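Task 17 of the worksheet. Students: predict the tertiary structure of the chain below and write it out as structure tokens. Keep your answer in the requested format; marks are given for formatting as well as content.
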Amino acid sequence: MTACPSPSARHGGRARPRQPGGTLFLTGHRLSGVNTRTLSGLGARTLLGGATLVALVATAGSLVLSLGLGLVPCRLCWYQRILMYPLVVVLGAAAVERRAAVAWTALPLVGLGAAIAAYHSWLQVTQTTCGIGAVSCAQVQYRVAGLTVPNLSLAAFCLVGVTVALAWRRG
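Model answer:
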């Protein structure tokens, strides 16, 4: 096992040349040839990929609850699904294309979905019946880690919203 040569030894005893556009990491070494704008674009792409993953897990979870466990979604659950499902495709395409401006499309869906999920969560806490559809929206059908399905939906919409907003700022 050989020791790593010092920075001055790697450059023949001379000081290491400065590279424009590099970035400083915790180790104190500069990356040569790395453009900081590329790193921020990569950050936005990673955030959009994370938002896509959250939307995908929420979509898969809703399908498992209805198709796998046989739970019948109420009308508010359907509205939340209508707003969450397209986010998988929209955010996935934006992550691949590095398009942080997808926030103009995604954030209205996220905001409306979060509002419906918050209202649905409020109904489950304060009401015993709901006359919106055949299945009562106030009825708690299933809990995961103590959270109801609308609570999980609200968490997913909020997480997607925060990551998309961060990607938009970085992109």
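Marker's comment: Helices lie at 7-10, 36-68, 75-97, 103-126, 149-170. The radius of gyration is 23 Å.
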